[in-house]
Design goal:
3-stranded antiparallel beta sheet, 3 helices, globular
């Protein structure tokens, strides 16, 4: 499968609510998952970072994400993921996105979440996530609901270019 172009901030597809997937074992769904996997791998290779991607970022308004956490962490597709529960405790962070890779947005997310999703066979799976994995899943699930991190900014001064973020040494925090 070819690497797909990642849609950039301003493309209206990024604000669309995605359709549920019911054809789990179809060529269409298998192709989508492969495209997400290859596009994520390509982005990571070219940029040195990246842990997840959502279908609307490659122009497909269907509810699928692909995640590849650090070695030893979760890796694979999640179809129709939804947050079942989230902690009241929040974490504040600088969020980045493949669709605007040179812009970071300060926001808050739940520190812990419980997610349910369908696997490639259509079986419902459950996963508990904390910290950076929880924030990643919230970010990717937001994409499926047409919500970007720019929509969740703490305030109007919660934006920074990647260059300034690095200059201030915030990447090590």
């Amino acid at each position: 499968m070819p690497v797909k172009r990642i849609l950039q901030l301003g493309d209206p597809i990024l604000w669309q609510v995605c359709d549920l997937i019911s054809d789990f074992d179809s060529d269409r769904t298998r192709s989508l998952i492969e495209d997400l996997d290859h596009t994520l791998a390509d982005f990571r290779k070219r940029n040195g970072f990246g842990r997840g991607i959502a279908a609307p970022q490659i122009g497909i308004a269907r509810r699928a994400i692909f995640v590849r956490m650090h070695p030893g962490g979760f890796a694979g597709p999640m179809i129709n993921p939804w947050i079942v529960r989230e902690s009241e405790e929040r974490i504040e962070m600088w969020d980045d996105c493949f669709s605007f890779p040179n812009l970071l947005v300060r926001l808050t997310r739940a520190k812990e979440i419980l997610v349910e999703y369908h696997d490639v066979d259509g079986a419902v799976q459950s996963l508990s996530a904390q910290g950076d994995f929880a924030e990643l899943l919230q970010h990717e699930i937001d994409h499926l609901d047409g919500i970007l991190s720019t929509d969740r900014a703490i305030d109007s001064q919660s934006f920074m270019t990647r260059e300034e973020w690095i200059r201030q040494g915030l990447e090590s925090k």
